[in-house]
Design brief:
The protein is mainly α. It is about 75% helix and about 0% strand. Strands 1-2 form a two-stranded antiparallel sheet. It comes from Actinoplanes missouriensis (strain ATCC 14538 / DSM 43046 / CBS 188.64 / JCM 3121 / NBRC 102363 / NCIMB 12654 / NRRL B-3342 / UNCC 431).
Length: about 375
């Protein structure tokens, strides 16, 4: 991999995106401005991916993918809370729709396309089943606790937790996420390192000197700047998205899907690029780490925000969504257990993503 550390566009675009965010924040945007903002958003995404790779190359795996996943998720949480504060009744299910979309996009979309790219490159995509299996199990447990159980509890009418249940779910979700991070970064770090087709662990990028600490810190700052601009600009054009969704006659839940797609774009690009370099484990770390962080950090944050937010918080999934969730984790388990995958497994997960997107638009 040839890594250019701080090229001009990777510095300029995040600054321009933040400037656009400041100038457009809280204003109604005419269509030409929406187009410009969307272009800057795309540029900020590309810059975020670049700086994430610089930081990841400095700190190594699995810390690099963890930094990107947590950074994106923290800002995603801020976006969800902001939209819930200003969104009224329509936002009562926004957290559920966005988190569920994030799980489906990461576990099916990012994981599927990474396996497909890796299998096309090497015929067989090889990864560590111990680490990937533990990550998938944690995602499944947190997703079921946070998104399925509220449909069946009886303390409150509708698919929602009581305050005590929400607090308990938040503590357990956060606890499981932190336990996974401990296992990933300390006790069993080798389970999450990239491996070759022959099963040998890859400790770092070959023939590439890691960036200096100063360069990595600059890239970390620019990464956070780019991610803030991505989420802020996404919020700025969200009214246009909502009006477009309404004009097209689509369900309001599609807004959550679009938000998740935009926010997860940096991780998607980073995962595909890692897969193209035969770093499938890095791609899976990004996919499952993002899904886990999306739930494990969002639910506790929303639980705290509900102290001052009015109205119910609808977290429970409907029947169709639960079927898709169960199918996703069933297929994911069969994909992960062997530690090897071909284009069939990649195609299966991308097919499930297509089903999710279709049913989101036509429930």
């Amino acid at each position: 991999m040839k890594l250019k550390i701080l090229s001009q566009w990777t510095v300029t675009l995040p600054i321009l995106a933040v400037a656009a965010l400041v100038l457009t924040w809280g204003r109604d945007l005419p269509p030409p401005v929406v187009v410009i903002v969307a272009l800057l958003l795309g540029g900020a995404v590309m810059a975020a991916v670049h700086h994430a790779e610089v930081v990841a190359h400095r700190v190594g795996e699995p810390y690099g993918s963890l930094i990107l996943a947590v950074a994106v998720t923290v800002i995603e949480v801020a976006l969800i809370v902001t939209l819930m504060i200003s969104g009224g009744e329509k936002s009562q299910s926004l957290a559920r729709d966005t988190v569920f979309a994030a799980v489906m996009i990461t576990v099916n979309g990012i994981l599927g396309i990474s396996l497909l790219v890796g299998a096309i490159r090497r015929r067989i995509a090889v990864f560590n089943p111990e680490g990937t299996g533990g990550a998938l199990a944690t995602v499944a447990a947190i997703a079921t606790l946070s998104l399925v159980l509220p449909t069946f509890t009886t303390s409150r009418p509708g698919p929602q937790f009581s305050p005590a249940q929400l607090g308990f779910a938040a503590v357990v979700s956060l606890g499981l996420y932190l336990l996974f991070v401990l296992v990933q970064t300390r006790r069993h770090r080798d389970y999450f390192l990239p491996i070759t087709t022959e099963g040998e662990v890859i400790e770092g990028e070959e023939h590439v000197e890691p960036p200096s600490g100063r360069t990595a810190l600059i890239s970390l700052g620019l990464l956070l700047l780019a991610l803030v601009s991505v989420v802020g600009l996404a919020k700025g054009i969200s009214p246009s998205i909502e009006s477009g969704v309404a004009s097209a006659g689509l369900p309001h839940s599609v807004v959550g899907v679009v938000i998740a797609l935009m926010v997860l774009l940096p991780e998607t690009i980073a995962a595909v690029r890692a897969a193209a370099r035969d770093r499938i484990q890095t791609s899976l770390n990004l996919a499952l780490g993002s899904a886990m962080a999306s739930i494990g950090l969002t639910i506790p944050a929303i639980a705290v925000a509900m102290i001052w937010l009015d109205g119910p918080l609808l977290l429970g999934l409907g029947g169709t969504q639960m079927v898709l969730l169960v199918l996703t984790f069933g297929v994911g388990t069969l994909t992960v257990v062997p530690g090897r995958a071909n284009i069939l497994q990649g195609g299966l997960h991308l097919g499930l993503l297509a089903v999710f997107l279709f049913l989101a638009a036509s429930p």
